[in-house]
Known about the structure:
The chain has 678 residues and is an alpha+beta fold. The chain has four domains: 6-112 and 257-332, 3-Layer(aba) Sandwich (Rossmann fold); 118-238, Methionyl-trna Synthetase, domain 2 (Beta Complex); 374-519, Orthogonal Bundle (Isoleucyl-tRNA Synthetase, Domain 1), CATH 1.10.730.10; 575-677, CATH 2.40.50.140. Helix content is 41%, strand content 17%. The strands form eight sheets. Strands 17, 18, 19, 20, 23 and 26 form a six-stranded antiparallel sheet that branches. The chain is globular and about 105 Å long. The structure holds one RNA strand of 77 nucleotides.
Amino acid sequence: MSAPKRYTVTAALPYANGPVHIGHLAGCYLPADIYVRYLRQNEKDVKFICGSDEHGVAIIMKAKAEGVSPQEIVDKYNGIMQQAFEGFGISFDIYSRTSKEIHHKTASDFFLKLYEKGAFTEKETEQYYDPEAEQFLADRYIEGECPNCHFPDAYGDQCENCGTSLSPTDLINPRSRLSGAKPERRKTKHWFLPLDHLSGRIKSFIQSHKDWKPNVYGQCMSWLDDSGGLQARSMTRDLDWGIKVPLPDAEGKVLYVWFDAPIGYISATKELMGDDWETWWKDEDTALIHFIGKDNIVFHCIIFPAMLMEHGEFILPDQVPANEFLNLEGKKISTSRNWAVWLHEYLQDFPDQQDVLRYALCAAAPETKDNDFTWKDFQTRNNSELVAIYGNFVNRVLVLMQKYYNGTVPQPAAFSETDQELLQLLADAPANIGQSLDQYRFREALSAYIQLARSGNKYLADEEPWKLVKTDPERTQTILYVATQVCAALAQLGEPFLPFTSARLRSFLHLDLMSWEACKRKEFIPAGSQLEKGELLFQKIEDDKVQTQLDKLKRNPTQNNPSQKLIPLKEEITFDDFTKLDIRTGTILAAEPVPKTDKLLKLTVDIGVETRTIVSGIAEHFKPEDIIGQQVSVLANLAPKKLRGVESKGMVLMAENAEGKLVFAQPSDTMENGSVVR
RNA sequence: GGCGAGGUAGCUCAGGCGGUUAGAGCGCAGGAUUCAUAACCCUGAGGUCAUGGGUUCAAUUCCCAUCCUCGCUACCA
């Protein structure tokens, strides 16, 4: 699109079941905010849209865990998140909530419109139903034994112990998390959005956006080429928390949270703009830009556009600048393990230092690949860049101004070549930084910005006004006039990145915020202007502060020893139950990998009475050649099962610890094959 | 296993539609300086651009294969 008339910029709606951490900020909200502030300073017509995503099963579960209502949960986290965003100066034009009336209406209207257009196919499927609670159970509502690691409390969508993705029907002895009752399978009707007939349009839509970042474009194409086309997706759920399906025969059903959430962008715009909202979503001259993390790419680039296409009236996203993930001290950020830096806690631990984190996260943003955040790096960014380069430069100028001229900007004489070059650098800076921002290259933009302060420091070092002041007052005046202009440029162009600092610096210089275009100049502050004494813009961060943060992270008990999470004992069985198992000793005669799998080995095992083939998921732990001749214990009377086309008869018994390490459960001394284990 | 993204100085990253000595910041070493939060400024050391082949007069940049990391996906009797 060439020169859009306006911009609708969205940042992913954060899910209201927990607070926001630095990964969210670095991946989504900070770049979005920098971009939006930049657009605003360019006097573009822009709306920055966000809000809490407050529906879905995870919130119900969270409420259940804390013994409160879902409403209380979302109220609580909505408050925490909103404050955190505000604290960091994330300048949303509106921060709404999907629990609001206006969103319920918008989302149901959207659904109805698709319904009336015949976009959905109704399908009956079998789902687990809790006869005591009298409701259908979402995947997360069902727990049972994990078929993989035999953890007894695996959920219907995933086993928390071994991380395997599951479907509820995989669980052994499933039970309802609501009542504990044994769920039964019942038929239920849902509305599916078939995507196959759109795949052509979606593909050409994606292909028309080769300008998207490689990670975004690549993942979309991969998804489209994958799995034999796009599968129909159910857009409704049997649940009582969410937006009621607006159809007569849909009692007890709500819209799937992934259906309603992106519509939240639209509802929030309505809430903000009233009747004008349509311009921001339907006018071809509007650029729609979604800032998200990489986990959201497929949804924002394919599913949501497909919904918009089906509806027919909406524009499609122009850009989806998704970032990769931010790690913390070398490990993946994990909410459940509390391995995170929470924004609301940072604001308490580092009061009035929001810009430091903004700076550190922007400078190390995971733009092209996952990146690691360390407190050490944070400290270095602060001490040797913000303090030593930026803060120091400004301080030097303000101190000299005060010393020599009582803060009144002096009249410059003729400019030397060096002066001219530096002033030209200022005049070029907006275009230079802007070019990076236009391409969503935030690290590069920030580095170009801080380069101004570096140039200022070099200028002072080269010109040495503190020497010249004794011999050449006129030249000194010129130098400090020029240096003052550099400070002013920093104050103006820093607004997108470091809004708090920029505002403070402008107040020292008695400047109002200028437009980006107006900053393409050499003089920001004319001679004769009065400056404040000012104060230091940044404080050094000492080692003990960093150590405190590291200790705080490592003190976390669940993080320290995840291996202590032993699986609880199973319920008692009878001796008869035990005698049903026929466990024999055997010897592995041959082993080879099963083609096209990572984990499976095809074993030939002599169990005395016969030699048989057993497929075992141990390929990641053992090389085939190393286990030939290995004596093992085999569960011999397990029903045969075909795995990846190979018939497996029996199971090789292994001991596994919490970290997933496997060892053979074998006789302590060599025994004849076929010996009974009991 | 399939698909996608990435593998470039000690660290964090740029770059390259093939072409003289491959860049930045931090860190490190040396120097200079004192206006400044022992900060700034200058100089320097440091890279077989993952590995192995191929195309080419020429590859780190293109092609193929392999290895490693991350994500999605298949799979764990």
